[in-house]
């Protein structure tokens, strides 16, 4: 039986992990290599690293950070943020990423997603979609750390990502990111019902119940950052709690339900 993936996220700026609310007010949360090693030892199934550096010079450190993380990490690693060309995506794969998340760049050049899928395989191409309420009962794609509202319908954009060859959707609610108020379940239902791809829920996690709710809304995996960075709960303790709530998760010893 398929198990639910629990995925810690590292937002990295200039080589340091940061965390904020709705992509703003970033504060230091630690060393990415140390955190990656800790989360794997606690039982994380995968890891996501998102480069949120504000300058091109800062983004040059992304590949170096990926190499450093990979040196201590054996679980799958998805890397995204600021990837605007195929060469940049391939550089991250060469540095040790297993998947590359594309968010802003395909808004301007959608074929980039197809190019990555063709070169690396669909399993390497992740449609990383940040979505926020449009105030009219739907959601629009937002880019540039939530500062640019594109007017693009997020549900249609998810379908387009599938058509272009993505193997997975990393869906972040811009309204819930860092708030710890729970995932946007309506958004999750809408996107998971529109595509056949696995959907990773992101933005707003605070409790095991939030994750159970996200899975019930159609998510295939759940991502969190604040609860792990602030050491409110370990990955292992969270998995034990989820298992007790009927979620099938992978532990070091066995698959439990």
Please report the distance between the alpha carbons of the first and last residues: 10 Å
Radius of gyration using CA atoms only: 17 Å
If you consult CATH, what is the topology? TIM Barrel
Q: Estimate what percentage of residues fall within beta strands.
A: 25-35%
CATH C-level label: Alpha Beta
Give the neighbour order of strands across the main sheet.
1-4-5-6-7-10-11-12
SSE-based structural type: alpha/beta
Order of helices and strands: EEEHEHHEHEHHEEEHEHEHEHHEE
Question: What overall form do the CA principal axes indicate?
Answer: globular
Count of domains? 1
What percent of the residues sit in helical stretches (DSSP H or I)? 25-40%
